[in-house]
Amino acid sequence: MLRNFSILLSAALLVSCGPPREDRIVIGSKNFTEQLILGEIIAQQIEAKTHLPVERRFYLAGTYICQQAILAGRIDIYPEYTGTALTAVLKEKPGGTREQVFQQVKTEYAQRFQLSVGQPFGFDDTFAIEIRGEDARRLGIKTLSQAATYTPQWRAGFGYEFMERPDGFKGLAAIYGLRFAESPRIMDLGLLNRALKDKQVDLIAGNRTDGLIPALDLFVLEDDRHYFPPYEAVPIIRQITIARHPEVQQALDTLAGTISDDDMRRLNYAVDGEHRDAKGVVREFLRQKGLW
Questions:
Q1: Model pTM?
Q2: What gap in Å lies between CA 169 and CA 159, rounded to an integer?
Q3: What superfamily does domain 2-124+230-288 belong to in CATH?
Q4: Any alpha helices (H) in the chain, and if so which ranges?
Q5: I need a labelling partner for 92 at 20 to 30 A (CA). Which of 3, 104, 170, 275 fits?
Q6: pLDDT at position 292, please?
């Protein structure tokens, strides 16, 4: 019910806000911590390098809301993941190397949507199928194939998108033969880790760069059948925005390859685990990286 309300509210906000003015850059993001951080990184880098006014429209629910917002011209840029673009937006089957997936997404986004796919930020945030660390140690489980033996006694918790998208639950369950004690619970992404830790569920689909995984003693199962495609983080930009403000593209290019997997975990933990303000965390990170 809360998820439906969130989506409706996001949609209403998008409808109520007109297209951005030509002299202002509007940054969007999805509704979880990593996206907030990436959106803030994009915003601060553009502000520092171009001096253009930047408006932030974060927490726009999920992939589909962000995609519709950028196609409608209500946002100019948002962070996305190549595997998500490939499967959830382009409706292609998972598969391919990092470079193959990136090139396919870049080409098709330009041809079909007049959107530019910027250079990867440097990290790959693939799905992480997680269980409690204590269960992994007690049962001697390291892989998803091994976990499949135990899932008939377990309860699963997933985000709404993971239940619906082509690279999500249905395909994963088919590849690994996963069955659960009851239908998976659909939960807000921000609640999944705590629900697993508190034993409300026994297996979740999170993100590999989540800073709370070590903090909560969670264990990421190996995708030993290589179900998931690469999920490199990239900026999605309206081509018309680049045409009007080529300096925006130049600012984003300076972020290419600057964020490692470990960097992203630390940034996520600073916000989720230490409850620090995202703007301050990002400002400190960009200065440490010598990007200003």
A1: 0.84
A2: 10
A3: Periplasmic binding protein-like II (3.40.190.10)
A4: 2-16, 33-50, 63-71, 82-84, 98-113, 133-139, 144-147, 160-164, 169-176, 192-197, 212-215, 239-244, 246-253, 261-272, 278-288
A5: 3
A6: 83
The alpha carbon of 149 is separated from its chain's Cα centroid by a whole number of angstroms, namely 29
Q: What is the DSSP string of 152-213?
A: GG--EEE-HHHHHSTTSHHHHHHHHT---SSPPEE--GGGHHHHHHTTS-SEEEEETT-THH
- Cα gap 94→88, rounded to integer Å: 10
The residues facing 77 across adjacent strands are 27, 237
Q: Tokens 């990290």 belong to which residue?
A: 123
CATH number assigned to the domain with residue range 127-220, chosen from the 4 options 3.40.190.120, 2.70.70.10, 1.10.150.390, 3.30.70.20: 3.40.190.120
Distance, CA of 45 to CA of 251 (rounded, Å): 6
Please write the tens of the pLDDT for every residue from 152-161.
999 999 999 8
pLDDT in tens, 228-285: 999 999 999 999 999 999 999 999 999 999 999 999 999 999 999 999 999 999 999 9
